[in-house]
């Protein structure tokens, strides 16, 4: 298993996002990413990847199939239905496909959370370090 820190840089090539800061959150079940202006049309979702704070964001609109809709309990304890997309995430040396919920994370320090379902049986988290995979490249 690959060891990662509690903060890592990830690539989401299908979203044209590279070097995106992500918090590894073993308390979260699923992955989540910040987006704006979500529009659902049939079985697809269009969203804007815009964030003035995070350099990896490029301001492009992306349209993808909806993988699923599911209730997610956020860190404040409130549940909300979220749209999930399915895209590859490159973390460290490996790339795996993951379901990622689309949400507004503008008030959060990191634009992406990597949850335990993605991490399980693939990675170990060293909570005393960050950006371990960047150092190993």
UniProtKB/TrEMBL annotation:
InterPro entries: Asp_endopeptidase, Peptidase_aspartic_dom_sf. GO terms for biological process: proteolysis. Signal peptide: none annotated. It holds the Pfam family Zn_protease. Residues 3-136 form the Retropepsin-like aspartic endopeptidase domain. One of its GO terms (molecular function) is peptidase activity. Keywords: Hydrolase, Protease. PANTHER family: ATP-DEPENDENT ZINC PROTEASE DOMAIN-CONTAINING PROTEIN-RELATED, ZN_PROTEASE DOMAIN-CONTAINING PROTEIN. This is Clan AA aspartic protease. The lineage of its organism: Bacteria, Pseudomonadati, Campylobacterota, Epsilonproteobacteria, Campylobacterales.
């Amino acid at each position: 298993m690959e060891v990662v820190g509690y903060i890592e840089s990830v690539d989401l090539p299908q979203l044209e996002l590279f070097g995106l800061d992500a918090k590894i959150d073993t308390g979260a079940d699923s992955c989540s990413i910040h987006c704006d202006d979500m529009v659902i049309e049939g079985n697809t979702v269009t969203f804007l990847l815009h964030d003035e704070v995070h350099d990896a964001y490029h301001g492009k609109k992306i349209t993808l199939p909806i993988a699923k809709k599911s209730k997610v309990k956020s860190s404040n304890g409130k549940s909300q239905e979220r749209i999930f997309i399915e895209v590859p995430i490159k973390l460290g040396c490996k790339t795996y496909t993951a379901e990622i919920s689309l949400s507004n994370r503008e008030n959060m320090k990191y634009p992406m959370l990597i949850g335990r379902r993605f991490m399980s049986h693939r990675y170990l988290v060293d909570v005393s370090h960050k950006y371990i995979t960047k150092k190993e490249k």
